[in-house]
Amino acid sequence: MRNLLLFSVFIFLFSCETSLEKNNPIDGLEIICYSGSAESSNSISINGQITTNQYTGVINYGHCIKSFPFEEDDFPQNNENSFENFWDQKSEYDSGVYTEQNFTTNFNNLEQETSYVIVSYAKILIVDELSYIYSEIETIATSTCNNNEIIGCDNECVLASLLGNGQCDDELNCSIYQWDEGDCQVGCTDLDACNFNPSATISNNNMCYYCYEDNCNDYPENLYNCDGNCIVDLDCNNDCGGDAEYDQCGVCDGNNSSCTGCMDSNACNFDSNATIPNNSTCFYCYEDNCNDYPEDLYDCNGECIEINGDCDEDPIIMGCMDSNACNFNPNATIPNNDICYYCFENNCNDYPSAFYDCDGNQINCGTVWFTFDCAQDYWGTTYWEFQNEDGEVLISGGCAEGDGMPYSLDECIPTNQCYSVYMYSQNFSGWPLGMVLYVGAPNYQGATFSLPNGYNNETFPAQWCWEDFND
User: Most-buried pick from 109, 163, 217, 377 (CB within 10 A)?
Assistant: First the structure.
C-alpha cells in the first residue's frame, strides 16, 4: 500500500489502513477514510469524514478511484490538471464545511474482477495557490457474484446469510457471527439429507441433497437410500421398484403366450408343452388344408390312409352337386344336397330366387314407369301405391305440397304377374279432375288411373298386368 502526500503543504491525513501524522500549519483540517467495500460485481461504496474550520480554505472534497496497474511515477502531483486527469472516477462535494462532515461516495459501472486504489482528497487554496491533499487507502477488487452473494473477507463471493455482522476476524465465534476467514465449516445440517455434515458449524441447507450422489433421476429417494441401495422389492427383472411379474408360463413380464396352445391330442398341431388350452387354434388336416388333404383320407403328415380309400384316385369330396344351387361345388365327388341353397347368401326372405340370382342381381323383371301428373289443386292430399299379389308395396308416390310439376319414377317389376293400384285422397271427392297416374312406358304412355270420388279404392283396387302392358 502506497501512502502519498504532497509535501508542498503540511497537513494531518488518515487512511483507512494507517494514520500519517505530519506537521499541520492549517489547524482543523482532517480527512479520514472510514471504509471501502465492493458491494457487487461492478460497484464500490466509500465512507469518509472531513473536519475543517473557517480558516482552512477548503474548496471541494471527496473520493476518487484508479484501476490497477499503473506506474508509481504517474501518480498525480499537487497541480490540479494532473489530479483531474489521472483518476477513472472522482466525487466532489461543495465547500463551506467548517465542522465535522460525513460523506459517502458510490462508484458504479466498474470492470468486473478488477482491483482499484481508493483515495480521499481535499481541494484547498493556500496563498492564492490551488492544491490537492490526499491519502491512498487500501485497494478493493470487484468480483462476479450471484444475486444472493456479497464480497467476503478476501474479496471472494460468499452467501450474504453467512457473513454475519460483516466483520472479518479469525477469532470470531462461528455460532454467533457465522463467518471468519476459514475456521468455520459451512454445510448441510439436515439429518435426512444424504450429505448431512455433523461437523458443520454454519448451516446452509440450500446445499442439501436427498438422493444417492445427488442423482434423483437414476436413484429416486423413494426407491434408493443414500448409499445407492434399493430399499423396496426388486421385480423379476431385478429392477428396483419395478412392476414386472412372472406369467403363468414362468416368463418374466410375459403374456402367457409361450405355454398357450392346442391341447387336443387328436389335432395335427397338438402342443404337448402347452399348459394353457387354446383349442380354437387346433386343426385336423395336414398343414390345415382340408381341401387337398381331407382328414378321412390323409393323416397329419400328409400320408394317405389307405384303409379309407385310394389316395391316388380322385379324392372323396362331399358337397352340393345341384348345379342350380347357389353353393354348387363342381369339385364334389359325393353329393350332399342337404346343404344346397338357392337364394343369394341363403337369404330367401330378402332375395327370393324368383327375382334375384345367386349374386343378388334382380332377374325376371322389367322396367315400368310411373308418371303422376300433379298439376292441379289438392297438392299433398293424394298419393298411390303399387302392390304385388302378396300385398307388398313395390313403389308408391304422391304430390308434394306446392309442387305442381308432374314427375316420373321407374322400377324393375317382376314379369308375368298382375298388380294392384291403390289410390288415396284426403277429400271425399277423390282426386281432382286432371290428376292422373300413368303406369307403363315413359312420357305419359301406358294405363291411366284416377280416383273419381271417395277417400280410396281399397275395396276394389285397380289392376295392372304385364300382359296388358305388352299388348
Answer: 163
Q: What is the CATH number of domain 12-141?
A: 2.60.40
pTM, entire model: 0.30
User: What tens digit of pLDDT does each residue of 5-39 get?
Assistant: 222 222 222 222 222 222 333 455 666 655 555 54
Count of alpha carbons within 13 angstroms of residue 178, beta-carbon side: 14
Cell numbers linked to 101: 462532515
pLDDT tens digits, 327-383: 999 888 888 889 999 999 998 888 888 778 899 888 888 888 888 877 556 566 788
Total Cβ atoms within 10 A of residue 400 = 11
Torsion angle of C-alpha atoms 454, 456, 462, 464, degrees rounded to 10: 140
Strand 260-261 relative to strand 276-277: parallel, antiparallel, unpaired? parallel
Indicate the domain borders of the chain.
12-141, 317-360, 365-470
